[in-house]
């Protein structure tokens, strides 16, 4: 994982993403690359996991070391010297896009965004990336996403991702150096020899699109809606490895009682009384005069 924001933004969703990782992978080693998390306060936020024996730590990124001997090295050097226009998109977002690629390339493993809820073990997955959308008529993917990536060390596709980032960087177009990057590179290398990877269908990690993500947060309004929620939840449980919450679109939404996400949180929680019921947390906060829900746990 990477976390480029301040600790004030590290809320229940991000914490729950970590919980879901360890619920499905209790023996995993989770590394959060983040300057703000690599602090005393960050250590305090991770302490409950460590106290339960889970292996998690945060480390500040050493960009020069991580990018060394890759195409990212020259790009980053140009950025420091003022020869690369960072553009209007927050630089931290684009550095996160590059950082995840470089770390995966050098060390291999699994990358997850902090707004991904893990539903089941990833042990069966190797060298995969997920499609965000599919063409209904052809059945072919139309866009990929980089919120979940699983690759071996030194995988050639990651090399191409980093190379494309350095060559075609554009800091003024949202997604150009992230989802659009992995989409255009994969479209170029598909069926070429030497690349061994799988594109999983949207249901694997993106069972609900960004424009419909609110449907996971709303509780049932009547019996018909309840049946739909139950069927949708069953479909996700059976077919998805994780759920991307699209925080940019859903950050202000509340998890309602009986919603799909509320029930998923009960399935995937580690500290269940603290994180699985957001409405309960809000009640406790008001009763006890606590401003931060983490102080309840």
Automatic annotation (TrEMBL):
Pfam families: Gb3_synth, Gly_transf_sug
UniProt domain Alpha 1,4-glycosyltransferase: residue ranges: 151-272
Top-rank taxon, per record: Eukaryota
SUPFAM superfamilies: Nucleotide-diphospho-sugar transferases
PANTHER family: ALPHA 1,4-GLYCOSYLTRANSFERASE FAMILY PROTEIN (PTHR46781:SF5)
Name of the protein in its database record: Alpha 1,4-glycosyltransferase domain-containing protein
The organism of origin for this protein: Coptis chinensis
